[in-house]
Amino acid sequence: MLKNTLNRVTTRAARSGRGPFSLVRHVGRKSGKTYETPVILARVPEGFIAELTYGEGVNWYRNIVAAGACEVLVDGEWHHVSAIEPCPSDAGREAFGYPARFVLQVLQRHEFRLLRTA
């Protein structure tokens, strides 16, 4: 219940362009249904860095890997992601500005992915 409530609030924030949230638009592997999931992304020259807070088992991530692509809404603009690639932990944390980088370090986050747009 908390997850659904938070997702509704953060989805609205991402759509409005306010706050740190972005949206990943992906298609369900089995259902074929289109979903939008709020995430926090960091912009890099090659595209965006995503931190996998809940690991590789989350549906949005499994869906984009299966499809090999997705769309992301960042600051009110949609971007096509053409590849999903591993990202070293240090480079992933470095992509996020302070204080997010500090929080990721303290929480020992180490699973990052490059969502390549270029």
UniProtKB/TrEMBL annotation:
It comes from Nocardioides albertanoniae. GO terms for molecular function: oxidoreductase activity. This is Deazaflavin-dependent oxidoreductase (Nitroreductase family). It comes from the Bacteria.
